[in-house]
Write a structure and sequence with these properties.
Layout: E1 6-14, E2 32-35, E3 41-48, H1 57-78, E4 82-83, E5 89-91, H2 106-128, E6 131-141, H3 142-146, H4 164-198, E7 203-206, E8 216-227, H5 231-244, E9 248-256
Antiparallel strand pairs: 1-3, 1-4, 1-5, 2-3, 6-8, 6-9, 7-8
Length: 290
Amino acid sequence: MTDGTALYVYALVPDRPGAADGVTGLDGRPLRLVGAAGTGVAALVHDAEPAPFQGGDEQVRRWVAEQSRAVTTVWERTGSVLPMTFNVLVAGEPPSEDRPGAGRGAEQRLTDWITDQEPHLTGRLEELAGRCELRVEITLERQAAAAGDPVPGTRGAEPGGRSPGMLRLLAKQREQQARNAAGELADTLHARIRRRLLSVAEDFRDRGPAHRAADETHVLSAALLVRHEDIDAVGTVLSETQAAQPACRIRFLGPWPPYSFTEAEHRPRDGEMPSLRPDAPSTPAPGGRP
């Protein structure tokens, strides 16, 4: 390491020799592990200039996707991971006569921080070992959900003799009735499906409603923390849900590193580890948006 260099930090992982071999990150940069002696914890990094990555929206999305792929690859090799957000850099510090120990390089500062945080970091990596994140998004196809429960007086109604205004009114009534029926069913399904998913998942995080078509009603959008061996059990719950309620539209995504279950708890706070990170998107799971 030379003066003025920095480290771009992708994640913290169990220190496994060779886990980063052949893995590339942003713009194809080769990655390596920086281990803190005696801790069993390593940082996945690339050597960088002490300046954040900045660009247009499309370029940032590409970088975020590259970071996600790199983190996923090393997670699959090590079995556990604590991902960092996009654009976390650790810089060396200038020498100072007033501050004993100042002048450490980026790698020394990073390993010192890992050593200081070792009990917490090791505990979280052990808790997440063998676990993954799954995303479940469920909506209802509104007309199918409301089938068989038409607006009174409209079943089989013929358009003949009705004015255009009356036809528009009836169409709006049918649409509102479908929305109401689907909304009531969605509330019932949400509670039932949530309870069943919690029986096979170790943790459950509600997420905001995902993008849905204009004819759909939101039922559930969640991140699940599950053991790898329980992925099929989640699939069974969803298959049975689909069979019981054909109006459901289900998206089942993953497995991914447990992004939603690490949040910012392991990331350095101001003053703990030097960061040149500007306001930047967090690293989403693959397929997510920055």
